[in-house]
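Tokens for ABC-2 type transport system ATP-binding protein. Go.
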Amino acid sequence: MSIVLKVENLSHRYATAWAIRDINFEISQNGVIGLLGSNGAGKSTTMNIICGVLNQTEGEVYINGINKREDPRLAKKQLGFLPQTPPVYMDFTVNEYLTYAADLRFIEKTKVKQSVAEVMDRTGISHFSSRLIKNLSGGYRQRVGIAQAIIHKPSIVILDEPTTGLDPNQIIEARKLIKEIAQDHTILLSSHVLSEINLLCRDIIMIESGRMVFSDSMDSFNNYIQPATVMMKMENPPVESELLKVEGVTKVQYLTDKQIRVWFSGNNNITQSLITASVQHNWQLVEINLERSILDDVFKQLSQQS
Ligand SMILES: Nc1ncnc2c1ncn2[C@@H]1O[C@H](COP(=O)(O)OP(=O)(O)OP(=O)(O)O)[C@@H](O)[C@H]1O
């Protein structure tokens, strides 16, 4: 399987402080790969270097085997980039802007019209082709941003926090589009939201304080992260002291009068124990879910191990 993106010993220093240190990973097939990290972890720095917006202090980036430092123009031809803020011109129409993007990407003059039409179709914006970008909703502006990133059919597409700032419906639509595009492109997508990466990504690369702390499949990540809390909804919830009597329960938090989160340790069958106790004492349990550790805990756990 050919390697689309290879990042080797990548480090970057702004002025005096290192933003990332010794990042290594390879990506080799279509699908969405998540770059996860808390704010300031180094995601944008890594992506900006991969895309050629920033030159690294140390290390190498290869796109389809082409060293970005040695042949930046050829390397950049093979990738598309959507930075955190879509690089769109508000006073252009969608059609004008994408025609301009096609030109920047050196698409042959005779093929520009067709490329623009195809990419508008692909991203579901054909009906807005003559609309000014400033008159589009955030979700559609993001689609235009994605369209410019794929207009030249790159093998890898880099999306920096693509759903930030969108409303819940727009987020669902954007995720759907990203999944569609991932069928014939490799996508590297950054986020500080674990659930987003979980929903979209096949593999996950996690960085914290500029260091890579995890790189594997989403499945291994989920197996690795042990559940630490249980969320329950009960029609007739007990008082705290009753819940603390259930084997393994260490802490109780009442979120509403019916919704309760409990912390536990040392009981691998915690849900079964809670269900049994609920039946015995008529707590009328209607919902129960194991919750994975919150992201801050995961970062702490992984950073300490690396
Ligand atoms: N231009 C800059 N000059 C100096 N330091 C910078 C610059 N850009 C980023 N940094 C620092 O580098 C570190 C990594 O920042 P980066 O923006 O890559 O993180 P991030 O994971 O993308 O965070 P966010 O999700 O908040 O964008 C942070 O400590 C940040 O303050």
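The pocket of adenosine-5'-triphosphate is lined by residues 14-15, 19, 37, 39-45, 192 (CB under 6 Å).
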